[in-house]
Amino acid sequence: MSQAAATSADLDAAAERARSEGYWDIVWRQFKKNAGAYWSLWLLVPLFMTAIFAPAIASNQPFIYVDGDQTLYPWFRAVLNPDQPVDYLFNMAMVGFFPWVVVAWLTNSRMKRRAVAGRRRVLNVVTQYLAIMAVLCILFLLNSGGGYWLRPVNKYWARSFATEDYEATQSGARIRSVYPPIPFGPIEIDLKARSKGPGYRKPADIQSDSNDRAIHWLGTDNTGRDVLTRMIYGARISMSVGFVAVGIYVTIGVFVGAIAGYFGGIVDMVISRLIEIVLLFPSFFLILTLVALIGPSIYVIMFVIGITSWATIARLTRGEVLKQRSIDYTVAAQALGSSHFRIIFRHILPNALSPALVSAPFGIASAIITEAGLSLLGFGVRPPAPSWGSILQQAHGNYNYWWLIVVPSLAMFLTVTIYNLVGSGLRDAMDPRLRI
Amino acid sequence: MIPTLFGVTVISFCIMQLAPGDPMLSQLSSQGAAGESSQTREAYLIQKRDLNLDKPLILNFRNFYDYRRDLKIAAYYRSLTEQQVAEDLARLSADPSDPEHAARLHFLRALDIEEFNERLHNPAKHARLAAAIRGFVQVYCEDIGSYGVPAAIQLLQDPTLDTSLKIGLIDCINYMVVEAHHPTYSRDPSDDETPLVTAVWRSWWQREQASFSALHPRRVEALQNELAAMVATTSREELYSQMERYDRGDVPFFAETLLGESTLREKVIASMLLNLYVARPLEMNVPHDAAAAKVNEVVENWLVHYEPRRKDYEKGLGGKLTAMFTDTQYAHMVWRLATFRFGRSALKTREPVSQKIWAAVIVSAPLMVMSEFVIYFVSIPLGITCAVNRGSWLDRLISFKLFFLYSVPPFVAAMLFLLFFCYGDYVKWFPMERLHSSGASEFGYLHYTMDYLWHCFLPVTCLSLFSLAALAMYSRTSMLDVIGQDYIRTARAKGVSRNRVIYKHALRNALIPILTLFANFLPAMLGGSVLIEYIFNIPGMGRLSWESIEQKDVPTLMALIYVQAIVVLVSILMTDIMYVFVDPRISFESQGKGQ
């Protein structure tokens, strides 16, 4: 009796859920069932945090530098004036992080009171973060140049505070400085600590331009740069290459595939042929050739991966759109007189996005691998800039320095595993038919 | 198939257009024409003609263009010394509105010299600019090539033209025509060449006959006998050593043999002999201060060049229209690719590209084949084992390991293998690099093979890992799909044994989608081998690609891209054909209808 009641209550609950649940709720529920994928999603958070807070973790610029009656804040100036646009973007994310936490907490609690669904709240908060980042970027870009209080010019870029520190202690002067936990810069060369193993700490009697007190936790490379610092900053490059490249090619692929699938006929034929042709070229070799001919740089890599890898996405989207086009709701939308544009982007695409979205995490993983491979061949980021692949490149042909191989390999393996787990979780959740 | 191939050529062409521009032009603009040696220039010019880089990209309108006006200006600048060009520049910048000056300025601007306008108005830069102009005019002549020859000949025949301009024009036409004369036959002589060869020597003979004394009849007889003997010789070396025996006095005999009635073979030998004693029968160039008579003589020589080739130079409308499409960089590239003539490498070695690629293919292909074997023979049983024991601990273990493998980038695996298995600090089981030990060619057959396999082990493993994992996961899914089908349940219900159902009924159907992946893994492996071969230092396709990219060897690069695309295309085609054999439900006819 009670069993039967429980069953009917369960059925009621299931029916209730089915009425109120949208597609994405179902996907999320399925996704959460997959423990590996769910926890990988959480593991992405520390990965991103490391990338965003890289200068706070590792930098050779002291936060505060007290020299007699003079107090300097070199770290803040350095953070606001990095050399690379990628670093600038991530630094802005760091600057905007704490304001965002406050704003997010406020909006979240307000929405909670109004019983907004969890997924909506997360989406809202993430959007807020992106908006804050965008606002900060624009604000600081407008304020660049001399004379603005918001973005002071970095006038200490030629000074080596570590050396001054050292000389001051030698001469007995009192200097107080506060460094980040790892007081090394990503491109800070220290010729007196070349190719040292993990845990190396310079003997006190050797003077050099780098911080003497600190330990190189993961050793140094062949010009004495700290490997851990370079790994941390390299994460920024890997993350941004992955996201931007995949963003570019998913956009192109979805757009092209949707047009081919929706319009059919000669448009479809031409695009299908184009997809076929692009797929004929071995992807890594094609990317390598293009990057080498255009001129290696991280932005070129993003762009080239973006314009060469869209074909698979386009093919998948085309198939899905073809399927959706013959379903009644599309015919109904056409009968109502909606424009092609509206039908494609409002009605069909939201239902046809799943293959593209499923392949995105895998794409990010493979873009990270591609970038590392290019760097290994010497066609990656420009030399002083840190990247996981360029650390590997230094080890190639010189296997004495095992940490130069093991450390980036491990990082790459973990990152790729995380993305692949998320991807397979997403695939299982979105399309149980594809489950492996 | 054909449209796809066409697309492949278009994309290869576009990629090649990205290659760094004209190395010669950048050289010229940076240091003027004076700095570089004539040898590099010659090599560059040959390479440029080789690749048809002097042609327009897609449509060629040059046959419709009247070059006379431009050529006059080009000749004007080639006839001046650098000093005079600098003076001319001063006049140009002083009075740019004069119609003649305007025409010259227009011509100079079209040459695309760096910062021309700025340098023109700065007298201090005129000397360097003048040097650059002379160089650029030369490149201009080289670029218009044979298209400008009819106009140049017309101008040369114009009696009202200045002698100094004619000297400049002769200078220009020398750059337009690469090899003006054929004093001897080519390696495979044919009768078609006779008019060209005889025209040269007839003209020379008319001019020079007077300076030779007539031969004694006895000598003539002896020479006739020797010529007959030479005609009979088949070995080239013997022929050359025989030729050494004659002196200048015998030239009239050979000239008459060549110009008179004789067989092709006699003519070939006579022309070779003549060329041995008279290296340059017709003077095609003139010094700057030549007299009018000398200039007219050279003009005559150019007419000797022009007359037999008039038909090639002066095309009819149909010929011009055809040339519009066929005489372009793109058309020439398509033709070369379609006939698999990839030309020579741009490196100093000038090795034929096909030879280079072939040498690399015979290194890479065994590796590829081996790893394909490994992939298919390991992954399919793995996938089936997982699918059959679905949910068991074995399935979980294998799936977990496969996922692990799937996440290891092949080149990372390669470097870790090298570090742990080859370097020697840990274990030294495998060699560091290359495919053979040093001195392997002396080994016995068995030893050689074992040595090769020992060297291959790690590269093949690294090449296979990723695809192996992917294919095993895929075959597991595919097998699970089939096992869930009704007909499998029916077979089981009928009492067919478990193994028989799995290996007879399910497996064959599960293999069909796996076959398609054959075509997918090939491009991935071709590309992925770049890194693996780079790390293991194997001189295969991947290493060759990397080297040609690094050394900017454009012809090799283009051939590599094209060849790899063709390989993939062929493998896709093969997969389609295999499909038909494996799956009786699919046939070529139904595929045609389905489209």
General description of the model:
The complex is a heterodimer of chains A (436) and B (595). Chain A has 436 residues and is mainly α. Chain A has a domain at 227-434: MetI-like fold (Orthogonal Bundle), CATH 1.10.3720. Chain A is 68% helix and 3% strand. Chain A is built from 19 helices and 5 strands. Chain A has helices spanning 2-20, 23-33, 35-52, 54-57, 74-80, 85-95, 97-113, 118-142, 161-171, 227-263, 265-280, 283-294, 298-308, 310-325, 328-335, 340-352, 354-377, 388-395, 403-430, and strands spanning 64-67, 70-72, 175-178, 200-201, 215-216. Chain A has a 3-stranded antiparallel β-sheet with strand order 2-1-3, with helices on one face. Chain A starts with a helix and ends in a 6-residue tail after the last helix. Chain B has 595 residues and is an all-alpha fold. Chain B folds into 3 domains: 2-176, no CATH class; 181-281, no CATH class; 353-582, MetI-like (MetI-like fold, Orthogonal Bundle), CATH 1.10.3720.10. Chain B is built from 28 helices and no strands. In chain B, helix 2 runs antiparallel to helix 8 (126-144). The longest helix of chain B has 39 residues, at 445-483. At the A-B interface, helix 11, helix 12, helix 17 and helix 19 of A face helix 1, helix 21, helix 22, helix 23 and helix 25 of B.
